[in-house]
Amino acid sequence: MRSSGAEFEIAQLKNVIHERENRLHDYVKQALATAASEASPVTYYTRNSNDSKLGQSFDTYGSDKNQRHSYAQFYEDQLDGIESPRILEIGIGSLGQFPYAGLKPGGSLQAWRERYPTSVIVGGDIDEEAFASVSEIAFQLDQTDTDSLDVFSTQIASYGPFDLIVDDGFHDPHANILTVLSMLPLLAPNGSYVIEDVHSSLIDFWRVVLDVRKIHGTVIDMSALRPDTDDNVLVLIKGKQF
Ligand SMILES: C[S@@+](CC[C@H](N)C(=O)[O-])C[C@H]1O[C@@H](n2cnc3c(N)ncnc32)[C@H](O)[C@@H]1O
């Protein structure tokens, strides 16, 4: 039987391995940097969100989009001039045992609603209790499952096309890519598709993906606005590019 000291060390090691920064070996990071050298450059976004109307709504309803991250002004910019944007958000908050759970269900949906009172707002989440508890239109969805994505697309199609699609669900690239491929047909011609909370270690990965898949998009690095946060990066597809 192992000593408790050894068990503690193994537990610590597991924590280190599971940190998003450490999921890519340094050689893979270097390979991605080389592969991305001729891809579109990163955009550095530095407009602060604190005073935006949307930022205040995110804070009021418990979403982390303004306080931990700094996305509100960016969204105000993307939706500027659209009075009633059609918004789809994947990942609506959950207090269950799901990846990236921990925020109360519906916080960001309430914030979108306060900022855009006449909008169509639709949500999706893996947590049945979460989507059942919110007051907006919402359905169950597992972003890692193409069958589930197909069912979800059919359920929400009549509410689109969407001016804004936000992926704030399972923040891992396999789920993000399956979701983009499934949801892009539901994006309005001038709409914006945004993948949130991209870890800084994945910037070159996303530059390569956009390039290889010939997707019109940019990686938006906002780390200067939140120096203590290591996932303050967005992938913007279509929308108002920089
Ligand atoms: C960061 S929270 C969303 C927070 C919310 N958008 C807000 O700003 O208040 C991430 C959500 O992703 C959901 N999620 C995790 N894995 C998922 C999956 N495979 N498919 C769909 N949703 C998933 C979790 O249940 C959780 O509600």
UniProtKB/TrEMBL annotation:
Gene3D superfamilies: Vaccinia Virus protein VP39. InterPro entries: SAM-dependent_MTases_sf (IPR029063). This is Unannotated protein.
